[in-house]
Amino acid sequence: MARPYFTLAVREDGRWFPEFGAYDREDVVSEMDDYHYHGTKRKDMKVLKLADARTKTMEAAIAALNGKPCA
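The structure assignment produced for this chain is given below.
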């Protein structure tokens, strides 16, 4: 079974984008704190827990946040 992978998603201009990822959630939360320190609002950030680190998995999660189906 694959290890869970965590991704920091940040909303810019109404759309979500992946900004940082790691297998350790604490690393992602630390990165989120850094973004917040530099002016990004907490409501514009989410930590996503993914089943694995594959690009398709992350793209599907971001597409879901943006309300679009993933091809």
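Interim note for the steering committee: Strands lie at 5-12, 15-22, 45-50. The chain has two helices and three strands.
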